[in-house]
């Protein structure tokens, strides 16, 4: 562009010089003076051009120098702020590592105390047992003690697996929650289903320890998901025994009060029968968890005729109802009212009714696409079941991150196990 402009200027100056020369020649001064005038004019114009160009170049150079200086100043400021940010980041990483170590130490200490108490309880029960296997009751007690030993060893030897099952939005089927399940393994690594061990675990006061280990792992899984920027919550089952245990619950509450960042991601779940059987102590302890910001879920619902106001007062935010039960009591009624205490409520009104009480309805045990069509007709927003994903064990590498230090737990039980004779 500058070459084109320069060419135009040259021809412009040449035209002016020739015009001046022609004017002198036409004035009768002759061709020589005309040519001299043209050359003189051309020289004057060239000199003026050089002066103007020089001034412009100097101004441009000064502007470039000013820009370079400003850029240098900005670069220096940026380097200074970056250095400050790096220093703050290093301090944050250091303090975060320390706080995480302190939190983990606190969690392990709580596990240590609970399992120590569990071992002492088992020791006392079995040390005072004088049964024989000659009678039916004796054989039954021996079997119970054998199962108790298996459960006890699974806890102390960390043969506990965490299973997760997705809870999805409908109709998008996007995973928004997981439900967590605990599975114990016997010495042969056979997976024990809850029906096998829950009765003896409850009878021997082991449920708080199982609940605590589940909570420990759920907390670590939630933190791992958060590191992956996945805002997914986890339903964590809790027993009535844990809510009412005067030794376990204060430690449980202390752990959660120090980890309030989990309040949006951890939802404590109880069965409807468990929820209905809660006493004053359990209700009060649920309120303490709610004061920290934690929410509750009710599953294993047997009837849709629920006290929604009581659920709302108890900080229950989710209700899980089996898909078959929803369809049976809402769609297969032949015009009858689904709720005996609210005859004006129609099938399509049930899900909106729960939402008016701050309760989100989840259809669980969804096994077929036909059920999905039916529950969508009922305006149910979330689903859970084998159709969307079966409970799957966490991979060993991930599970290892959620384990409490095994050596710490084993050393706690070493002396107790020597005294126990199963």
TrEMBL record:
<feature type="domain" description="EAL">
    <location>
        <begin position="144"/>
        <end position="405"/>
    </location>
</feature>
<dbReference type="InterPro" id="IPR035919">
    <property type="entry name" value="EAL_sf"/>
</dbReference>
<keyword id="KW-1133">Transmembrane helix</keyword>
<feature type="transmembrane region" description="Helical">
    <location>
        <begin position="34"/>
        <end position="56"/>
    </location>
</feature>
<dbReference type="InterPro" id="IPR050706">
    <property type="entry name" value="Cyclic-di-GMP_PDE-like"/>
</dbReference>
<feature type="transmembrane region" description="Helical">
    <location>
        <begin position="7"/>
        <end position="28"/>
    </location>
</feature>
<keyword id="KW-0812">Transmembrane</keyword>
<keyword id="KW-0472">Membrane</keyword>
<protein>
    <submittedName>
        <fullName>Cyclic-di-GMP phosphodiesterase TipF (Flagellum assembly factor)</fullName>
    </submittedName>
</protein>
<dbReference type="InterPro" id="IPR001633">
    <property type="entry name" value="EAL_dom"/>
</dbReference>
<dbReference type="Pfam" id="PF00563">
    <property type="entry name" value="EAL"/>
</dbReference>
